[in-house]
């Protein structure tokens, strides 16, 4: 009962491109083959388990789909012949039905258990297969849109071999030729052969690259080869990766070992640099410059005071200072004393600072006198870095036994419980990162690095210490300068900055106001902290000549762990975060800690020298996030909570936070994809989409926008989104802001976004003027339960969706007698636009004469079968191209009698009404019209061998017109006197895979009979397909059909 009730609306497989609003049906395929010994082992497994080979293949395919999607509830389509009546077996026609087989992979069962679940599901489905799939869809009323098929988006078919075909004096080889199209997201078509199993995986080009399709095939092949030995293992232990694939992920792409000063400390390396270049510019701030000698002296003074106050290794000293030269000397002084520094942002709320001081058990806070009033009450001793008495000579500090494993800093990051967590980073971790920075970006004494990040933001670590350990200059912005773009642009130019960093949201603002001349000296521009939108990369690349680097890393590591040098010709929708840095290992793992294959999203884990020691005084959370590394004995790895995946190029793509995934109307949505689409609009400056729910409203998407064009209307944004995104990804509300709220680290502060207002329109309803507008306003009001509808209202903005759109088509047909194509509502969702198109269809129908229908059993119209009706509907709704073509070819070697073949073809056409059927509209209903049989000449032409594939592909991709026909084509190609190829293609609405076998057998028998001058031996055809269609509809009115429908 209710087998498909509550099934997921879609299988959310990772794609290389976002799903378009309307599927194009463009497709391609990659080959699939299984060796005979593998197939025999699988057959033996099936026999032991009491299942069929198809059930084994289905269960295995669902395992792969589950691992790729992260879903335990997986629905796969399965075609069945639909010829339960003996009379239908010798007929050509579209009898095939589709079963939706729902796989339950929950609970991490063994594959053996899954097989028995699959067997039960399949057998029940076979018992109820008479129910047309279209009736099931109608009964379930799933969320529908033009971007994907309803109920399932992945198909699996296992075909038997073609019949053994024979013609006198001719050897034959039949071949199914695939059009370059895709009816589903994925369709795995397999055929049993003497050589095992072969076939292809058809994939939608809207969604995937060839490499991704090949990776899916590789995963399935690996799993199937292992199953005879692993059938009793849980699904989490079933292998999808080959040994070569594991080596690539673990070793080849993580081969990052490099030397670095792992036994040194930051302070000692700075002292060595100060001794080497004492007179070089060290820091520039607000018109003041100091050299390395002076900076070292000031830092030494701070260190002496701290040491004499009892500060030493692994103590934590608070730093509550504004950005200044004193901040730099204070940081170095703390490190010289052997302590770790705790940055306390002067903009933080007092309660947060008080918590951090208490949690870190800070004995001393280094601050400035002018900030004392802003420092909360604390038990820590305050030491003023700007105190005049600080210049009083102190005895030289005693050398402390500082080693590379002592703490260098503690930075607090937000916690899910509301309490911030202190991240502890040691010297060796920072030095590993700084060594990589220097090897990669190569600072020289002539370089100037901009220090604009708040000291509480971990990017400040390399901004501060990378130049100071390599003899370059540090340009420090004023306390509030990092937020002032005018000030920054002036400082960048006047101070001759060559290396700088910004978070993408800040960079976007800079790109909009800064001239290329301002950044003419900047050699390397580094971004990080947020995802870099591709549109921003393109804007930057078009305006500036400097190199742009995208770097990624959480606070729980020493700043960054991966790097990607951006290119202006990046063509992916996600800018990669790149490959791991030196002495860093990056893993993408599923929930069972298995390595995710290339292309499969999983959680990103980090291991190596850059890892933090853990969270200060939080062993519980440290144990949750810092786990044993299963791929390296005795090592740890950090669980980031970030979604990522490897690409075939060996670089990582960041896909967002796991906790930013939401489900909208049953679909899993990654809001970052909508952000990217919004930012592609030329009138939008910044955008972020967040989920929002309240007691009055279910979970909905809200878009927050900062506009470049103040005149931009929400309706225009919606139209833009609908060009690229399916309906469920269109935000329900749009909020325009002057600027997005930012955290102190310049990241978007989601918690500070204002609540949305869900409105049905932006303006007062404009009343209708024409009869068409009046009718549409009335219909919309009833459908949308909206008492006041105006002609400038948008159907989807008022709450319309695809199901209501279909109901609207029916109401327009019933009230106005006009057949309005469903596609028009998506193309013209505003009444004033739609009414104009409606008037056009009215005029066209009034000016045309009714099409006469060939009578059958009296004057009864010939209704379509349910499967035919779906294809007819699709043909009118979207441009499906050649996705529903059924092509086939027959190679004939020997002396062919062309006239006999032509006669045989005409006999087959005469026997089967389906081949002479066209489909027309009669009073809003699709009907079949059977065209009288006429003798046709077989079109024949000579082609060279090298051109054969192209001409056969051209036949396979012929575009049929359902209303005019014919809906088949035969072509004969002559390669030589004794070698010919017969090409055939038909629209699926009149033909299925079984029908091709019927066609082939009848052609061979008729040809043979003609050559041998005898009667052909063919089965009688007591009924035709039109009779079946009528019978099918009559049967569905019976109680037994209702019982079968209830199963689904």
**Low-confidence sequence ranges:** 848-855
- Which class best fits the helix and strand makeup? alpha/beta
The helix content, as a percent range, equals 25-40%
Multimeric status of the protein: single chain
Radius of gyration: 35 Å
CATH topology of the largest domain: Rossmann fold
CATH superfamily of the largest domain: ANL, N-terminal domain
Question: What is the count of structural domains?
Answer: 5
Mean pLDDT, nearest integer?
Answer: 88
How would you sum up this structure, described in words?
There is one protein chain. With 1048 residues, the chain is an alpha/beta fold. It has five domains: 27-240, Chloramphenicol Acetyltransferase (2-Layer Sandwich); 266-646, ANL, N-terminal domain (Rossmann fold, 3-Layer(aba) Sandwich); 653-752, GMP Synthetase, Chain A, domain 3, CATH 3.30.300; 771-846, ACP-like (Non-ribosomal Peptide Synthetase Peptidyl Carrier Protein, Chain A), CATH 1.10.1200; 866-1032, 2-Layer Sandwich (Chloramphenicol Acetyltransferase). It contains 28 helices and 39 strands. Helix 7 (266-276) crosses helix 9 and helix 11 (427-441) packs across helix 12 (459-468). The chain is elongated and about 120 Å long. 45% of the residues are buried. Residues 848-855 have low confidence and may be disordered.
Give a short overview.
The protein is α/β, with parallel strands linked by helices and 1048 residues long. It contains 28 helices and 39 strands. The chain has 5 domains: 214 residues, Chloramphenicol Acetyltransferase, CATH 3.30.559; 381 residues, Rossmann fold, CATH 3.40.50.12780; 100 residues, GMP Synthetase, Chain A, domain 3, CATH 3.30.300.30; 76 residues, ACP-like (Non-ribosomal Peptide Synthetase Peptidyl Carrier Protein, Chain A), CATH 1.10.1200; 167 residues, 2-Layer Sandwich (Chloramphenicol Acetyltransferase).
